[in-house]
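Researcher: We plan to redesign the surface later, but first we want a full-length starting point. Tokens attached.
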């Protein structure tokens, strides 16, 4: 077996550590940098333009933002005439349709923009079968199926921009009516209502439901009267859910959909529109683009701490600063949006963040990696652990935000988040009180049952929040399986023969999925990436004692070599659009390849060193 040059491996690790540490903010955390998004840019420009056109006070202020957004979109059109979610993404019907409609409405008569609109029209004719209202509606509804979370907002954009026909009544009747009146019911009922949108999309449910009702009220007089009576109440809920920043979930698309819907029916003096518009203007980048979210600071901070800990490179003098920052992000009250209990973490420290299971697990793991916990840290961790127990679903799995919202994929239990919770529970179980330890062991058994049931016959798990455009079904079994394996090595599952069998099957699939170049993509034959290779490598390096150990050693050596070569010894790390945001929007984060490559190489160094020691003892 050819192993990586130890000096070259160490040098690459030092460079990656340096690159990661130099990206820290003054407060000791990382903010990262999300990809600019054509969809976000188009929706933001359209929301601001619609606000100005419908009488927004001081509407002239938004014009430079709208113009800058349109210019960025024209400059970043794909060669085939469409737009993808990032500048590294394939063109797709959702983003292309929204950009095409927005540019046509805002700047369709401008000579500099017209050629881009023509190319987009040609792309839509080829892909959707035409640019008629029916062709577009059919293509969009087909893509999203029963989930109205994103299909109805896209159709709303098309209606607001006149792309569904000149007859406003007919155009709006082709947009499905979202039952915004249900938002007036007690929030404890929501999980039982099987709403056509996911839990985090309630602002869109209300605003888009209202604009559709405004332009095309129900022919059913009872439904029309009911919706008319609750418009004021549900508008008040929109304001109550709006964070201090003005941006729902810090998400440009969601905030834009709300703003354009209310502005489109003339409610430009609403505080929701004013505050949402302020958020959009303050979050535009210097180049005229918008990202899908302001940042993933909590998420990338916990990932960075984990990778540095794996490499033995956490700076000791900075540990208290990192710990204090993480503790400061833990929620201390019920969240006004999802009504999540206190004790959890969101993906961002900004006011639009919403507590979620993945970031709570990440924060718990990071706090444990920052040294022996003091009583304050143990208390915070116990609260986080209890929060995770509280969102565990009846199937044993862990969802992203809310327990019991199982109607749509983004609210169901998901394998990688369940495994992440198992990993967090495992490191904190010895530190908490006996009653909580008992509860954790019981929850871990239920989580293990869920993961065993969700493992596919080939040994893989499909993640919810990561994918790959080049893979079948745009799924990412390599990333998902790697992430789940981390949780399956939780001490809470030691001695579970069923889980041991799951691990063996998963490892064998990962070994077979390794590409000829030594790296990993989403599956065999899909181009290798730094992110996927790093995650798989780190997972395999925990598999010491597996019956496939000789094959694992060879795979780890080849994978480490690929990471070193492909990152140019750690000097370069271009991010791939593997992240899946709300509504399956693709994104990339510039820190991901650095973090995952560092974690993979650090694991490989430890694994290969241990292997050399084992070989030395065997030959002595």
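Model: Full-length starting sequence:
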């Amino acid at each position: 077996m050819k192993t990586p040059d130890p000096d070259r491996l160490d040098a690459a690790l030092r460079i990656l550590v340096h690159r990661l540490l130099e990206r820290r903010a003054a407060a000791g955390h990382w903010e990262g940098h999300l990809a600019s998004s054509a969809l976000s840019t188009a929706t933001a420009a359209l929301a601001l333009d619609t606000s100005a056109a419908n009488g927004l006070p001081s509407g002239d202020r938004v014009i430079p933002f709208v113009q800058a957004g349109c210019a960025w979109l024209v400059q970043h059109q794909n060669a085939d005439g469409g737009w993808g979610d990032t500048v590294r993404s394939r063109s797709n019907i959702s983003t292309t349709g929204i950009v095409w409609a927005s540019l046509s409405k805002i700047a369709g008569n401008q000579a500099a923009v017209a050629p881009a609109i023509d190319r987009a029209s040609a792309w839509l004719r080829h892909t959707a079968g035409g640019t008629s209202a029916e062709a577009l509606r059919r293509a969009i509804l087909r893509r999203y199926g029963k989930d109205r979370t994103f299909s109805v907002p896209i159709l709303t954009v098309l209606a607001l921009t006149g792309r569904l026909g000149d007859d406003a009544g007919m155009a709006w009747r082709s947009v499905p009516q979202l039952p915004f009146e249900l938002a007036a019911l007690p929030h404890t009922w929501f999980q039982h209502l099987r709403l056509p949108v996911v839990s985090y999309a309630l602002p869109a449910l209300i605003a888009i439901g209202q604009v559709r009702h405004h332009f095309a009220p129900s022919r059913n007089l009872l439904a029309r009267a009911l919706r008319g009576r609750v418009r004021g109440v549900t508008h008040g809920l929109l304001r109550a859910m709006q964070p201090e920043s003005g941006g729902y979930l810090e998400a440009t698309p969601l905030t834009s959909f709300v703003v354009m819907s209310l502005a489109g029916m003339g409610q430009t003096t609403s505080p929701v529109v004013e505050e949402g518009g302020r958020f959009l203007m303050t979050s535009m980048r210097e180049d005229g683009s918008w990202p899908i979210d302001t940042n993933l600071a909590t998420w990338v901070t916990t990932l960075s701490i984990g990778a540095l800990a794996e490499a033995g490179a956490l700076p000791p003098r900075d540990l208290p600063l990192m710990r204090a920052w993480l503790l400061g992000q833990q929620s201390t009250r019920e969240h006004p949006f999802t009504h999540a209990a206190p004790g959890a973490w969101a993906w961002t420290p900004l006011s639009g963040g919403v507590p979620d299971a993945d970031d709570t697990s990440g924060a718990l793991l990071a706090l444990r990696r920052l040294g022996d916990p003091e009583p304050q840290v143990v208390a915070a961790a116990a609260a986080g652990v209890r929060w995770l127990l509280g969102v565990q679903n009846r199937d044993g799995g862990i969802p992203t935000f809310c327990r019991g919202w199982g109607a749509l994929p983004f609210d169901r239990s998901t394998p990688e988040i369940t495994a992440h919770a198992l990993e967090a529970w495992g490191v904190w179980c010895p530190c908490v009180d006996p009653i909580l330890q008992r509860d954790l062991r019981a929850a871990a058994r239920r989580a293990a049952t869920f993961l065993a049931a969700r493992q596919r016959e080939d040994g893989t798990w499909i993640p919810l929040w990561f994918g790959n455009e080049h893979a079948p079904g745009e799924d990412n079994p390599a990333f998902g399986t790697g992430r789940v394996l981390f949780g399956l090595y939780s001490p809470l599952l030691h001695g579970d023969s069923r889980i041991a069998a799951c691990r063996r099957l998963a490892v064998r699939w990962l070994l077979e999925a390794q590409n000829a170049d030594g790296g990993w993509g989403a599956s065999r034959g899909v181009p290798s990436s730094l992110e996927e290779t790093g995650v798989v490598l780190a997972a395999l390096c925990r598999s010491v004692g597996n019956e496939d150990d000789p094959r694992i050693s060879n795979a780890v050596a080849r994978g480490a070599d690929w990471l070193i070569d492909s990152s140019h010894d750690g000097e370069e790390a271009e991010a791939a659009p593997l992240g899946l945001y709300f509504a399956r929007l693709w994104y990339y984060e510039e820190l991901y390849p650095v973090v995952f490559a560092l974690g993979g190489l650090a694991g490989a160094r430890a694994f290969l060193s241990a292997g050399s020691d084992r070989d030395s003892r065997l030959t002595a």
